[in-house]
Amino acid sequence: MRKFLFVMLTSPFFSMAQAADSVIINVGESSKVIFAIGDKKDLETLKQYDFQAVINDLAAKLENGDTTKLAKPAEEYVKPTEETSELRKVETDNTSDEDWDDSWERRQNQYRHEYKSNSDREKRYYGRRTRQSFNLDLGMNNYIGKGQVPDFEPYTVKQWGSWYVALNSTERTRMGRTFFLEWGAGVSWYNFKYENEAIRMAMDSVGVSFTPAVSDVEYVKSKLTAAYINVFAIPVFDFGGNSRKAMFFDGHHSESFRVGLGPYMGYRVDSYSKSVIKADGEKHKDHSHQNYYLDNLRYGLRLQIGFRDADIFINYDLNELYTAGKGPKLNAFSFGITL
């Protein structure tokens, strides 16, 4: 009995170039039939092929000692349907053997070209190193003076109500499989809401002062707001290897844990004090846009720890909030959640 190795590699539909699953059927003692399946959808196509016709053609070539590949194109082994049988008969009658050979070579070349194009597209997509996103920082801010959060000082702020808000455009660049650099720019606002609603800020050539007002009115609010334009560069380890930064609102959910620590720098673009009083049953607001000797620059370190679709962040300014000698020695910080 003639033994043979039936490995289907000469036709595109039997290509093992990207096989994900394979089935090996042992035939006799030394022969095998190998099916290499790269896509489960191809199984439906596989059902349409007439393998008996393939075996018959192969057996005839072996009996004649012909070692060349099967000359018929792959489509010729598809079982004809009622709709295609008549069309195939017409095409077969009008096609010579030379035409079949030319057609086969053209189809093979076309397949190789399409396969290479698909591979290049997949490579380009996987190799995309940077993705952009917009994120919102929402939390609270305070400051540290003499190693602790000030208490019983005229500039002591409320823990609840001293909001920190930032809008950031973030680029995430892949540096390694799980190592990324998150960099970009944004705008942020410090809101220092004073514990004593009667505190009023003033500035002169000596510096900034915090003095409680004395009047027969109800003091509702007193705060200082400072706005900055910032840049940042945060090295991040994302143990899920996600190329996209997690965002709460974009519908792309992440289940990975990530941690990052890096520097930021900001430039003050506006600052103002705001006070609100209530007199004769009506509220009265007062704004005063001044620099109050706030340092124009801020720089510090940012720690962010994330899981799923949100990060927890802590920002700490390494430089003092006020110009040296013009205000209290305070280092601002903020903490909250990134969405």
Strand order of the largest sheet: 4-5-6-9-10-12-13-14
Structural class: alpha+beta
Arithmetic mean pLDDT? 81
Total count of strands: 14
Helix share of residues? 10-25%
Rounded radius of gyration (Å): 36 Å
The quaternary structure here is single chain
Instruction: Characterize the main sheet.
Output: 8 strands, antiparallel, barrel
Q: What sort of overall outline do the alpha carbons produce when their principal axes are compared?
A: rod-shaped
Euclidean distance between termini CA atoms: 71 Å
Q: Would you list the SSEs in sequence order as H and E?
A: EEEHHHHEEEEEEEEEEE
Number of domains: 2
Strand content: 35-45%
Question: Which stretches are poorly predicted, pLDDT < 50 over at least 5 residues?
Answer: 1-19, 122-126
Number of helices: 4
Architecture overview:
The protein is an alpha+beta fold. The chain has two domains: 6-125, no CATH class; 128-338. Helix content is 18%, strand content 43%. The protein has helices at 42-46, 51-63, 82-93, 97-126; strands spanning 6-7, 21-27, 31-37, 130-144, 163-174, 179-193, 199-203, 208-212, 218-238, 257-279, 282-289, 297-307, 310-317, 331-338. An eight-stranded antiparallel β-barrel has the order 4-5-6-9-10-12-13-14. It has a three-stranded mixed sheet with strand order 1-3-2, with no helix packed on it. A two-stranded antiparallel ribbon has the order 7-8. The longest helix has 30 residues, at 97-126. The protein is rod-shaped, with a radius of gyration of 36 Å. It starts with 5 loop residues before the first strand and ends with a strand. Mean pLDDT is 81; it is low at 1-19 and 122-126.
